[in-house]
Amino acid sequence: MHTSVPTRLPRSSVRRTLGAALLTAGLTLGSLSVPGAPANAATTDADISCTPTQNVFSVNPDGELVLNSFNDLSSAASPILAAPAKVIGGGWQQFGKLLAGPNGWLYGINATGMFGYHWNGTAFDVVAKPFGKIFSGWAAAGLRDKITIDARGHFYLIQSNGDLRRYVLDAATSTFSSQPVGGGWNIFSSITGAGDGVIYARTPAGGLNRYQFEPTSDRFVHAISLSNSNWAFPIVTSPGGDVLLGLDAAGRLSQHRYKRDPGSWVVSNRTVGTGWQVYSQVVATTNACTLTASYVPQPPAVPTELNPPMAVLQTPAGAIEYGLANNIGEVKWGHQSDPIDFGGTAWNAMNDGQAFTGTPGLVQGADGRIEFMLHNVNSRFAARTQTAAGSTELGPLVDRGGVMASSAVSAKSPANNKMVSFAVDGDGKLWGKPEQTQGFFPWQPYASPPLSGVPVIAPGPNNTLTVIARDTAGTFWAASWNGGGLSAFSSLGGTGFTGKVSAVRYPGDLIRVFARDADGRIKTQKQTAAGTAFPGTWTTVGPEDMTWPGSPAAVMAPDSGLLEVLVRGTDGKYYFAQELTQGSGTWPTFKPINLPESEQYSVDATPFVYTAQGEQKWAFATYNQNFAPRVITASAAPTSAKIAKTTAAGDPTFTLHKLPTP
User: Smallest Cα–Cα separation from 458: which of 476, 439, 438, 436?
Assistant: First the structure.
């Protein structure tokens, strides 16, 4: 009776990662450097380690699986084969695509699905373990070279839209998780895993590029173009460690080894086999050779950010969502379903035993679910997302990599309705993590001055977002995010600024920013044309002798169109400055916000506009010295007082609302 899998072969449980977006991970072919001509050299260096023999499996014309054990494919030394080739199974012709993974795992793919086999060195101890039909399409002739496995057992594949996607297999459940890791990969006709996250990609003309994806930090750590036309082999496989085996049409198997440092071929085009044209498929165990160097970025120091501001947003359904992190690593989600019932806010812990710091990134996705981006004290990020729009439950923590010094700021791009987060690493470089159709791309680097602190995102013109960040000299810079890329940064002028900038958009897409200078004064400037350019001239908000310990926070009052500027005083109280008239850009002075409670505040205010009972209002969120959350609402001045905003009667009335203790 015919069976759908080889009867003499064992199967395997491996981790496989297919991918859907690499080149857009901040990597473009135009930016890749090309090394000099390849060179042959004996390799006695200690930067690679290989198992005593390296197994290469091939399928002969009778559908038999042949085991070829090589001596040392990392060097140019002899001998080549450690033992004569031998047949270890039959029936393998049924698989349109054969893959080898790490540790003796093999995977056969055909129209009925993918099946795993495990070779223990003498026999198959797992045979035809089913892994579903997720990769069945890649058994076809046009796609079989566009799927591979790396040394970790992660599967990478090129999707029809050109995305490179990584799949990770959960061996316990035989299920896959996946993420897009790059875009634009449809220019490649073949990919080959050759190490831990190392992918060699070939073009139809024989061009060869090397990429290295580092899963721990969720970023690419290397990308280079190695050849324009010399790699038109029908078959390329790898035992890992940047060793490649190329099989040409004449049946010659050649050995190649690339060294990332110093960036050259230490073994090139060395013949290690002839007569291999009889084999329809040739695959090697992907971790038989491994590099001894680690390419995991070193995590930067992440000191606890004391008294970080709260995160707030209102959903279209009317619920107000809060994110609050305290000084001991706890982070809480507050869900207020009724925008007038502040006392009805329900709090839930988000940290799940881990320690986080900084203001949580808070954004609502296109599907209506809110998401928090949390910064772990170990420098990595984790996300928690609502289980459904409007739900009172969050899903589990999901690792988002990062290895960043700053916490993240998140927003949704109006250009494509996709989320994006930005953060700064330990070297002051800006990184972004954009959402795609089927997940989030890895962290991508963007050209910027050396930055410090957490970036800010504000609305921009023409459905863009404006990213504003402070450099190490205290100068603010602005760039535009269009949903797929970041523009060059423009300086806002001045130096010595501290803390965060606050940005407000006027009708017509002009932005006004507020910031604290080196002396503690609040400064402002406004664009004269939509975009990222600013005049570069700062003016003082309020009297010159008024100084403040924290960053300003500004909001446009929806009832009056006036800009209200909030600051925190050294006395632990809040103060506000109200614009003299609409668009005047003049704030006569700061006045105390007198509240009935005798409380102290050490956190900068988070102002927000919200809708309640059909009317737009503004308020700000904070917490007191005991981390008890508060919302202070601002009631509009009487209509008669709006005519002359210079009078005290024109000031809003502030009301303190106590939220339940988290």
Answer: 476
pLDDT digits (tens, 9 = 90+) for 35-50: 222 333 334 568 999 9
What does the pLDDT average to over 592-621?
Answer: 95
pLDDT at 462 > cutoff 70 = yes
The neighbour count for residue 455, using CB atoms within 10 Å, is 24
For the full predicted model, state whether its pTM sits above 0.85: yes
**Burial class (CB within 10 angstroms; exposed 0-12, middle 13-18, buried 19+) of 108:** buried
Helix ranges (DSSP H) in 418-551: none
Question: Tokens 């100084």 belong to which residue?
Answer: 547
How many Å apart are CA 144 and CA 135, to the nearest integer? Answer: 10
Distance CA 233, CA 251 (A): 10
CA distances to 589, 654, 657 from 636, rounded to whole Å, are 19, 9, 17
Closest by CA to 154, choosing from 287, 21, 57, is: 287
Chain-centroid distance, C-alpha 182: 11
- The closest alpha carbon to 408, from 427, 437, 433, belongs to 433
Q: Long-range pairs for 204-213 at CB < 8 Å and ≥24 separation?
A: 205/229, 205/232, 206/230, 206/231, 206/232, 207/231, 209/29, 209/32, 210/242, 210/258, 210/260, 211/22, 211/27, 211/182, 212/260, 212/295, 213/22, 213/25, 213/166, 213/181, 213/442
Most distant pair of Cα atoms in the chain: their distance: 98
Strands 522-526 and 346-349 come out as: unpaired
Please determine, for residue 11, whether its predicted confidence score (pLDDT) is greater than 70.
no
Q: How confident is the model at residue 19 (pLDDT cuts 50, 70, 90)?
A: very low
**Average pLDDT rounded to a whole number, residues 202-231:** 96
Which amino acid, residue 423? Answer: A
**Which residue did the predictor score with more confidence, 447 or 7?**
447
For residue 310, the 8-state DSSP code is P
Consecutive H or E run containing 35: none
pLDDT score, position 80: 84
| CB-CB contact of 449 with 429 (8 Å) | no
Q: Going edge to edge, which strands form the sheet with 522-526?
A: 498-505, 511-516, 522-526, 539-540
Q: How far apart are CA 47 and CA 195, in angstroms?
A: 13
Q: What is the pLDDT of residues 645-660, one digit of tens each?
A: 444 448 999 999 999 9
Cα distance between residue 326 and residue 332, in whole Å: 9
Write phi, then psi, for 94 (nearest 5 degrees): -70, -15
| Cα 560 to Cα 542: distance, rounded to the nearest angstrom | 20
